[in-house]
Design a protein that fits this description.
The chain has five helices and seven strands. The protein is α+β, with helices and mostly antiparallel strands and 168 residues long.
Length: 168
């Protein structure tokens, strides 16, 4: 069972350990952070979103209260009743336990029940089938596929634009 709470700077020590290699880091960061991730980059990221009234950085805690997952909820639009999820990651040593699915489901519940939004969007690279499957299992559906939109070294990655719509 996971719990979801706002990210604190003290959580940085965990996030710094969750990436095993540059490629998986780039799949998470989409080029928005430099590899390897540093405490200073996390502090800048934290400050940026602490000042953004339409965004929240969230952390998922395991049964012992230790951080095992992270995601960003941003671009909350109360007129369109939507929000975008990004920077979704589970501790590489904790993968395969269903934490990703549970964390995203908890965040969706927060968006629908607390924020009273009706639509959540996210993007996932086509070379990340486990994340794509995780999001589908939560309730997200593919709305669009954009081929070769991101370059990583000599590779071109496509992205699935996904959405989850609340139905009462």
């Amino acid at each position: 069972m996971l719990r979801l709470r706002p990210f604190k700077l003290t959580d940085s020590q965990y996030l710094l350990q969750w990436f095993g290699d540059k490629k998986s880091f780039t799949m998470w960061s989409a080029g928005k952070f430099d590899y390897p991730l540093t405490k200073e980059q996390i502090e800048d990221y934290y400050r940026k979103y602490e000042e953004d009234e339409f965004a929240w950085i969230m952390i998922a805690l395991n049964e012992e209260g230790r951080p095992v997952g992270h995601l960003l909820m941003r671009m909350a639009d109360y007129k369109k009743e939507s929000i975008h999820f990004g920077f979704i990651i589970v501790d590489r040593n904790e993968r395969g336990k269903g934490y990703g699915k549970e964390m995203v489901a908890l965040a969706a519940k927060y968006a629908f029940e607390i924020l009273k939004l009706k639509r959540i969007t996210l993007g996932v690279y086509d070379n990340n089938p486990s994340a794509h499957g995780c999001y589908k299992a939560v309730g997200f559906v593919d709305e669009d596929y954009r081929k070769e939109v991101f370059t990583y070294e000599d590779e071109k990655w496509g992205i699935f634009d996904m959405a989850y719509t609340f139905s009462s």
